[in-house]
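User: Run a structure prediction on this.
Assistant: Running it now.
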Amino acid sequence: MLSALRTLAAEPPTLDGEGRDTRWPDLTNAVHWLVDDTLWDLVDPATSIGTILRNGHEADVIREIVTAVVAVSERQGTMASDATWFGDSGWCEVRRLAANALNRLTG
């Protein structure tokens, strides 16, 4: 999860010739790890307290970043290019919330 948050918090990378993120984890995997693999888009992150998350404060910051990522996904679609996601009007907010989540989880 921390690796996914680092990817989301970082400046958008230089993309390859097909408009894809070449980092590891790349944008696609970061979203999968944070949203799809945890099901936090369907269940409250608070259900992960004691297993993945330590407390309600961590659940709160994760809830915020997941909501922001899902909003980008709903606007752009899951099959949109990485360039399209990085260009979304809400991407700066995703980055800010991911950085905040990293600070709260590792600080």
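The chain is about 55% helix and 0% strand.
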